[in-house]
């Protein structure tokens, strides 16, 4: 379930960034949470919203900090 949660969060964050850039949504996090929760449900996985929230936050961090060098 962890791999699917990470994949759902990654897809959700990417989708939220794209839709947010097009100014189609106001709250990217709420959109990402909804997408991740629905993506997981489509795969038969129902998790606590706090776990989904943490995965979304981790995906955001990873997406925006992966190109930065660690010193």
Characterization of the model:
The model has no long low-confidence stretch (mean pLDDT 90). 73% of the residues lie in helices and 0% in strands. Helix 1 crosses helix 2, helix 1 (2-21) packs across helix 3 and helix 2 crosses helix 3. By secondary structure, it is an all-alpha fold. The protein is built from three helices and no strands.
List keywords for this structure.
globular; single chain; 3 helices; 71 residues; mainly alpha
Question: What's the short version?
Answer:
By secondary structure, the chain is mainly α. The protein has helices at 2-21, 28-42, 49-65.
Percent of residues in helices comes to over 70%
Structural class: mainly alpha
Topology pattern, helix = H, strand = E: HHH
Number of strands: 0
Please outline the major beta sheet: none
Shape: globular
The first-to-last residue Cα distance is: 32 Å
Strand content: under 5%
List low-pLDDT spans. Answer: none
Mean pLDDT: 90
Q: Taking Cα atoms only, what radius of gyration do you get, to the nearest Å? A: 12 Å
> Number of helical segments?
3
Helix-strand layout with pairing:
Elements: H1 2-21, H2 28-42, H3 49-65
């Amino acid at each position: 379930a962890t791999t699917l949660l990470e994949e759902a969060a990654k897809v959700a964050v990417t989708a939220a960034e794209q839709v947010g850039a097009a100014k189609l949504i106001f709250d990217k996090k709420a959109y990402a949470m909804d997408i991740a929760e629905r993506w997981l449900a489509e795969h038969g996985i129902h998790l606590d919203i706090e776990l989904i929230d943490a995965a979304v936050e981790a995906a955001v961090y990873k997406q925006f900090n992966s190109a930065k060098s660690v010193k």
